[in-house]
């Protein structure tokens, strides 16, 4: 009774394009161009579409180049930090070669292990779990960092 779902309601006047209207702008054509398949376009609408696409591609290309430069600078920073780490590891290994001077006033006992007041040696528990902790999505400081999606070359 409401007419819902009937052919006249589904295909109203707004759903059907006039014969002399451009397929891009949906306005009556002033300078029409017809494709071999029978689609009608206006020259001005085609040129505006091409210019719009050209500017969009230029924007995407600029963003891609910016991303490319950022990745290049990040790679350079990482390589420099790796070199610094190698130098630091080398320095620490070279410093550990030199033996520590022996203090003649101490006995031969090593004081590396601690002894509790009851006389029992205190063993270090398991390693701290801060380096082994899993990322938490509920605590902002522990959330994993999301990397931005890489852009493809347009």
UniProtKB/TrEMBL annotation:
Source superkingdom: Eukaryota
InterPro entries in the cross-refs: NOSIP (IPR016818), Znf-NOSIP (IPR031790), Znf_RING/FYVE/PHD (IPR013083)
Biased composition (Polar residues): 93-108, 115-135
Protein keywords: Nucleus
Region spans: Disordered: 68-140
Record field: compositional bias (Basic and acidic residues): 79-92
Entry's localization field: Nucleus
Pfam families, A to Z: zf-NOSIP
Domain Nitric oxide synthase-interacting protein zinc-finger: 1-54
Similarity remark: Belongs to the NOSIP family.
Protein name, UniProt field: Nitric oxide synthase-interacting protein
